[in-house]
């Protein structure tokens, strides 16, 4: 099989930005809402923030937490930290209480810059005397009076750029160490998949504090494109925002495409101007439905933060496949004994580097988790996949996101993909709960589309015609909304595992 050449990433990405800022200073890097942000403007802002950070005592290798919404300040500070060789700790702006306290306590940043309305959430955490919290508005005011710093710390490509805490859908988040090279590779992969043309506009709804948003910062450095940065994802206003931005590309993760499909039809369904939707987590049935309704080509991929965001990409393969490995990775599928599976068989995806530094070097302050995730230099993803004879990979869910019911293994993905096709269902999640007899029972959580009505018994009867008996949920709960990660994935560990707070099929049967 012919593989694309490996990109030269030894310079990381800061040098690339500086080259563009010198050569084409007025070229637009991004639009933030209605405001255009040129390379020159971002260069000045990042240099003044760099001088301000130095004046605050931040040194190379120091950790600085940013709890900021999408915008110019977040962009400028991220680049400023890269310039001075410090380590960015992105914080979810929705984090509160114990989850926020855990990340701040674990990362121990020397400085926190946050939106002013989020400072009370930080103060309530008692993160310790070493951390100083500054409002974003005050940081901008102080930086405006600082002289722009010309001095840079030229960080090696494999030096840490960020500690990105995983979404924590099933437990405590782990701090993935992301190098300058890894972020550069995540952008190279985005360019490979999205295949933008000169002058294209890529719509960025995903938070910059998530790898899916952060990787977009590389695109204007390696392609002649502009970013259109939105503050957040809005299903109802999505296509209007996209059209206003004149976007050619949109990014998706998790259930975003399903959520958009559930919205009422409208005049923008075919007049939005988008050519390509690229990302990860598009089931085969949603793939065709989305393309047919919105006239947008789906480009699917698979990845993890630990693997520079993208591991495989479907550039021209069959619907439902997550594609073939990107040039800087090799991928194997191994069984529980660590042996390769036959074509078509299922096993764990294991990733090895073809380019040194493409994989994370581990989890921050968690040697045990690092040791569990690596075997002989290969990264164990914990994801269940298969591969056809043409080397197209297929994702079947997390290996831990399955339930053994009456002797059969049931993956959440296979049940959820069927449930989501019900016309009244907006989104759903499946978990396993304790059974009185046997291994486990299935509990299903569902949110209903606006204006629709759905009763658990009705949904159960509908599923009985579409799922095997062992796949059918015994318990069904209707929720108003799910608690989600920054990438819109459902946080399953927050779902109730009680069995007396929902509809019970066994109770109806008796």
What average pLDDT do the residues reach?
92
CATH top level class name of one domain: Alpha Beta
Q: Which percent range fits the helix content?
A: 25-40%
| Shape, per Cα inertia axes | globular
Low-confidence stretches: none
* Total strand segments: 26
- The total count of helices amounts to 16
CATH topology of one domain: Rossmann fold
Rounded to the nearest angstrom, the radius of gyration is 23 Å
Question: What spatial order of strands do you see in the largest sheet?
Answer: 2-1-10-9-11-12-13-14-15
β content, as a range? Answer: 25-35%
State the oligomer.
single chain
The span between the termini is 58 Å
State the CATH architecture of one domain: 3-Layer(aba) Sandwich
Structural class estimated from helices and strands: alpha/beta
Largest sheet: 9 strands, mixed
Could you characterize what this model shows?
- This protein is α/β, with parallel strands linked by helices and 510 residues long.
- Among the domains are: 39-179, 3-Layer(aba) Sandwich (Rossmann fold); 402-509, GMP Synthetase, Chain A, domain 3 (2-Layer Sandwich), CATH 3.30.300.30.
- The chain is 28% helix and 25% strand.
- α2 crosses α3 (72-84) and α2 (39-55) packs across α6 (136-144).
- The longest helix is centred in the N-terminal third of the chain and has 17 residues, at 39-55.
- It starts with 13 loop residues before the first helix and ends with a helix.
């Amino acid at each position: 099989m012919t593989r694309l050449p490996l990109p030269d990433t030894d310079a990381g990405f800061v040098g690339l930005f500086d080259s563009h800022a010198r050569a084409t200073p007025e070229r637009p890097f991004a639009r933030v809402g209605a405001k255009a942000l040129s390379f020159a403007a971002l260069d000045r802002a990042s240099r003044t923030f760099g001088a301000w950070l130095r004046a605050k005592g931040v040194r190379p290798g120091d950790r600085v937490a940013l709890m900021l919404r999408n915008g110019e300040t977040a962009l400028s500070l991220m680049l400023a930290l890269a310039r001075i060789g410090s380590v960015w700790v992105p914080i979810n702006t929705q984090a509160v209480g114990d989850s926020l306290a855990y990340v701040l306590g674990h990362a121990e940043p020397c400085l926190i810059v946050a939106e002013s309305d989020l400072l009370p959430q930080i103060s309530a955490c008692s993160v310790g005397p070493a951390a100083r919290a500054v409002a974003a508005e005050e940081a901008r005011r102080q930086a405006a009076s600082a002289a722009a710093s010309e001095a840079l710390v030229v960080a090696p490509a494999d030096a840490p750029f960020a500690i990105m805490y995983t979404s924590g859908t099933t437990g405590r988040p782990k701090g993935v160490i992301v190098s300058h090279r890894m972020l550069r590779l995540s952008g190279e992969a985005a360019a490979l998949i999205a295949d933008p043309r000169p002058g294209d506009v890529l719509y960025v709804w995903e938070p910059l504090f998530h790898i899916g948003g952060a990787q977009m910062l590389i695109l204007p450095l390696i392609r002649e494109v502009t970013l259109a940065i939105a503050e957040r994802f809005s299903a109802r206003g999505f296509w209007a925002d996209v059209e206003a931005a004149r976007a050619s590309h949109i990014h998706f993760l998790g259930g975003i495409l399903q959520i958009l499909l559930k919205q009422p039809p409208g005049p923008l369904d075919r007049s939005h101007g988008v050519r390509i939707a690229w990302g990860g987590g598009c089931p085969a049935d949603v793939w065709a439905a989305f393309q047919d309704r919105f006239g947008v080509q789906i480009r699917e991929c698979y990845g993890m933060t630990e693997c520079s965001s993208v591991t495989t990409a479907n550039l021209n393969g069959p619907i439902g496949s997550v594609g073939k490995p990107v040039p800087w990775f090799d991928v194997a599928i191994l069984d529980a004994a660590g042996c390769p599976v036959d074509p078509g068989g299922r096993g764990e995806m294991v990733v090895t580097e073809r380019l040194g530094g493409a994989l994370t070097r581990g989890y921050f302050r968690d040697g045990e988790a690092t040791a569990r995730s690596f075997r002989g230099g290969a990264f164990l993803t914990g994801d269940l996949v298969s591969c056809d004879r043409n080397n197209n990979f297929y994702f079947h869910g997390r290996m831990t996101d399955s339930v053994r019911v009456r002797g059969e293994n049931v993956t959440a993905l296979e049940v959820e993909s069927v449930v989501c096709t019900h016309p009244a269902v907006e989104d759903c999640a499946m978990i396993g709960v304790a059974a009185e007899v046997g291994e486990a029972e299935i509990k299903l959580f569902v949110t209903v589309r606006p204006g629709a009505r759905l009763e658990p018994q009705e949904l159960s009867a509908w599923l009985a015609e579409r799922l095997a008996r062992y796949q059918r949920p015994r318990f069904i709960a209707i929720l108003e909304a799910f608690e989600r990660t920054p990438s819109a994935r459902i946080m399953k560990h927050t779902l109730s595992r009680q069995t007396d707070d929902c509809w019970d099929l066994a109770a109806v049967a008796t």
